[in-house]
Amino acid sequence: MEQEQTVLEPEQGQEAPEGGTPAPEVKADEGREAELARLQQQVASLEARLQQEESQSRERGSSLAGAQESLAEAVSRYRGALLASAPETPESLVQGATIQEVDDSFAGAKELARQIRERVEAELAQERTPAGAPPRTPPDPSALSPREKILSGLSGS
Fold first, then answer.
1. How far apart are CA 54 and CA 116, in angstroms?
2. What is the pLDDT of residues 102-156, one digit of tens each?
3. How many other CB atoms are there within 10 angstroms of residue 29's CB atom?
4. Does the model's pTM come out above 0.85?
């Protein structure tokens, strides 16, 4: 962008022409000063724009931080609601920073709880014993000998 200007200096013994026409060195100095002023104005404009952009960036950063806090709170409340709806689900298995992550971990935890419940129920069904003593039944007379039958009849039982 900068244009190079050649400055003609008068040789020794020569003077600038008279009659109001400035010497070429003066024109070059004026051109440099004008270019310098233009560049300084451009730098000032760019610095002002930089300050404005930095200010906007700080505002966006604080806004982003607020949104992240709101998201974390919403995810925490959502997790609590899910756990309240399924108390058999282990809380430690339901984690995540986003709703999608919480949903995925909740589905896995719920499936694990279902599998454990099925195993425990199957084990209990195999080991089931009746509560209390079995009901009394009279002895089967067909298994008794004739003598035992006579004694049972005489005793009244």
1. 56
2. 999 999 999 999 999 999 998 888 877 667 777 777 768 888 888 988 888 888 7
3. 13
4. no
d(CA 98, CA 71): 8
Domain residue extents for the chain = 24-127
CA-based angle 44:46:47, to the nearest 5?
65
Task: Indicate the DSSP class of residue 145.
Answer: -
Distance CA 141, CA 123 (A): 38
Helix (H) or strand (E) holding 142: none
At 111, list the tokens: 């499936």
The residue among 81, 87, 3, 1 whose CA lies nearest residue 42 is: 1
Tens-place pLDDT, residues 43-65: 999 999 999 999 999 999 999 99
Task: Assign 16 to helix, strand or coil.
Answer: coil
**What's the CA gap between 59 and 15, in Å, rounded?**
62
Q: Nearest-5° angle of CA 143, CA 149, CA 154?
A: 155
